[in-house]
Specification:
By secondary structure, the protein is of the alpha+beta class. Helix content is about 50%, strand content about 15%. It has twelve helices and ten strands. The strands form two sheets. Strands 4-3-2-1-7-6-5 form a seven-stranded antiparallel sheet. Strands 8-10-9 form a three-stranded mixed sheet. A hairpin with a 6-residue loop joins strand 6 and strand 7. About 10% of the residues have low confidence.
Length: about 375
């Protein structure tokens, strides 16, 4: 029997589990002996080997989000049970050749259009867009996102916004403190709306709007982690990134649709192309927002190192998958971001008291279990 940590892929919770072999299955039980998962031994795959103090990761096949984290000693117990632990499910015929043929069809002129002309044009349009238009775009985007998330969660859109008064006042104070730093260059503090959903995310929208999801509040382990995320998203607003990317995404979708036509499902393919293309040049924007967030936290007297630990956990959870997909990601690698933040010598202040932190955690009615 071995001990490990299980992520079911459905929520942000981590489960301490015992791992045993029963017939042809790997059985995972929590502290109450409840079976959380039963994986056929032949389908267990190694995603990352354990390395010193860093646990290894196992999955059921190479698809799905469920993960079993094991340190070296426990991994040594499990490994002999799983005959296909290191078997590759990817072949040249099924993946390599189609990707090579698809990529080989791109021409230099199209690449220049998407990677040079369109980003430049999007920046010009974003900086010249009237404020009223930008605010209307942000409001429409926020309403669309709230409605969409409500439908996915099976909730009433009118009940998606968290209304805990004490927590909202504390977040408003933090929001005000960050926004009034002259380096932000904001005329007014952005609106901050907390959404009652398990999704672990925060978003900056055009027109000075930010969305914070309950799932992110539950995921972070320190007030300064949350403040770092808010400062990062506010940094995007200061640089007009949301408006620029909205213009760029719209242009990308239109151009790809024109190139391939809609008879082949162009709308869906345009969305895929938009995600890939935007990822190539938006990593610099993420670094800009990181740098501004850390600088402003430091000026406010708040320790940015917990913000680095937030990225450490992302790197631990995502592992080599994040490295494999770094070229298509709109964010720099989490491990690199954590390292960059730790290199900065900052103060050791905490943005909230324990009582304030508890009230922020209760803004949607308390932590979900």
């Amino acid at each position: 029997m071995a001990q490990g940590t299980f992520h079911d892929g459905l929520s942000s919770r981590r489960h301490s589990v015992s791992v045993a072999r029963e017939a042809a299955d790997l059985v995972l039980r929590d502290d109450s002996e409840t079976i959380l998962a039963r994986w056929p031994l032949a389908e267990v795959r190694l995603l990352d080997r354990p390395d010193g103090e860093r646990p290894g990761r196992l999955g059921l096949g190479r698809s799905g989000d469920a993960r079993l984290m094991l340190f070296q000693a426990d991994f040594n117990v499990i490994a002999p049970w799983c005959p296909n632990l290191t078997k590759s499910d990817v072949t040249w015929q099924s993946h390599g050749r189609p990707m090579l043929l698809w990529g080989g069809g791109a021409t230099l002129s199209v690449l220049l259009l998407f990677f040079v002309v369109l980003p430049w044009l999007a920046r010009v349009v974003a900086l010249s867009l009237p404020g009223d238009w930008e605010r209307d775009l942000g409001q429409a985007t926020e309403e669309f996102l709230i409605t969409t998330i409500a439908r996915l969660d099976g909730k009433d859109p009118d009940r998606m916004v968290c209304a805990g008064k004490d927590g909202a006042l504390i977040l408003a104070r933090i929001n005000q403190r960050l926004a009034t730093d002259s380096r932000m260059g904001l005329e007014h503090p952005p609106s901050l709306t907390v959404i009652d959903t398990d999704l672990v995310n925060a978003l900056a929208l055009p027109g000075g709007r930010m969305l914070l999801f309950r799932g992110l509040i539950e995921e972070v382990e320190h007030p300064n982690e949350l403040v770092g995320v808010l400062a990062h998203e506010m940094g995007h607003l200061a640089k007009r990134h949301p408006t620029e990317m909205a213009v760029q995404a719209a242009g990308t979708s239109v151009l790809i649709s024109l190139l391939i036509g809609d008879v082949t499902g162009g709308a869906a393919l345009a969305l895929l192309g938009e995600s890939v293309i935007n990822g190539v040049y938006s990593r610099d924007k993420e670094r800009e927002a990181d740098d501004l967030a850390v600088a402003i936290m430091t000026t406010a007297g708040w320790d940015p190192k917990p913000f680095a630990r937030f990225f450490d956990r992302l790197a631990e959870d995502q592992g080599s998958l994040e490295e494999t997909l770094a070229w298509v990601s709109s964010h720099p690698l989490s491990e690199n971001r954590a390292t960059a933040i730790r290199e900065i010598q900052g103060p050791d202040g905490i943005a909230m008291t324990d009582l304030e932190w508890a009230k922020v955690n209760g803004i949607c009615g308390g932590r979900s279990e």
